[in-house]
Amino acid sequence: MDGGFFLAQLDFFPGMQYDYIAAMQGQDQTQPTEEHPANVRPRRIPRPRLFRPRLVLENMSDRKIVDDYHLSRTAIYELYQEIRHDIDPNTARSHAVPGMLKLLTVLQFLATGTFQHVLGGNSGVDQATVSRHLAQVLHAMKKCAHKHIAFPTGEDEQRVIKQDFYKIAGMPNVLGAIDCTHVALVPPVEQEMQYRNCKMGHSLNVQAVCDANLKILDVVTRFPGSCHDSYILSHSALGKQFAEGRIRKGWLLGDAGYGSKTWLLTPFAVPHSDAEKCYNQAHISTRCTIERTFGVLKSRFRCLHISGGSLLYSPEKVADIVLVCCMLHNIALKHHLDIDIVVPDEVDITPPDRGSDVSMGNAVRRQVIQKYFSNPRQPLEP
């Protein structure tokens, strides 16, 4: 055996050290000695466990915190207090990973979209540990997502939303802008076709509704990429509330992929009259808030954008990641944390819906144009 190779093994197998030293001293390890009787095994000297230094939020500047986690110090502390009972360790071990550290490692992964930034920092944990923390923290945040994402049902709340939308381009009675966006994933082998989208990639098709300030009011994350936008809407809780008349005083704005409904207005593919052109201009300017919302969301949490690659998790966990990112997006808005949109615009190639209620939706659209856009010189009321 090569001597150099043998010596190198001592670093990996410390139990060999006694045998090797004894052999060098000419002792026969098969014979008992006074110091080491036959029925007593040589005592191994334990190697000390090494713990990497762990980051401490108090030692970081405000700018560094926002750069690394895309949330402010105050926002992180408030979030930690909300979920700490689900993520703090249940052991008194001195080296148990604190709940705050679990939260920070997950926030950094969501913000960067890669484990490399997390592992290369001062988290003091390895990738397997980060993966365990991800599941625990996602579960904790998912439990409180309903506190941060909720479609307003009160008249006062809805009135404020309508007024904010109206200020954009004079579009009246708008309760939300709706669209879908794809989040890339690696599909289960047996469901590959189900998750293949119209661009021949694999994804979840995520539906969201936002207000005029880019706050997410409703999100649906469970549908695979092959599902049409209108199918997701009709099977979502919010879509059913509108369709059943439980939400009456207002409408959503969507693109032509949805088809007009009595409670969802779409633009004209080819506007002819001046009134139709005015309507289209107001519709497009107002509805683009959902596109900006997706841009800000995916810029803030790069794990959701295709530039970071496909998420290597089950569809169920990817759905949880999307939901949590939407919740964190709203928390960031609450704390007035702006971020530049750094991801390219997504091209929507969703074919138009030809549902049975399109004709009734078109009739409502004509009424809206007649009432609000036939004489645009007159001031409009939301």
TrEMBL record:
Primary location: cytoplasm
Cofactor requirements of the protein: a divalent metal cation
Residue spans crossing the bilayer: none
A GO cellular component annotation in the UniProt record: nucleus
MF terms (GO), sorted A to Z: hydrolase activity; metal ion binding; nuclease activity
Localisation: Cytoplasm; Nucleus
Entry keywords, A to Z: Cytoplasm, Hydrolase, Metal-binding, Nuclease, Nucleus
Region (Disordered): 26-45
PANTHER family noted in UniProt: NUCLEASE HARBI1-RELATED, PTHR22930
Function: Transposase-derived protein that may have nuclease activity. Does not have transposase activity.
Similarity remark: Belongs to the HARBI1 family.
Protein name per the record: Putative nuclease HARBI1
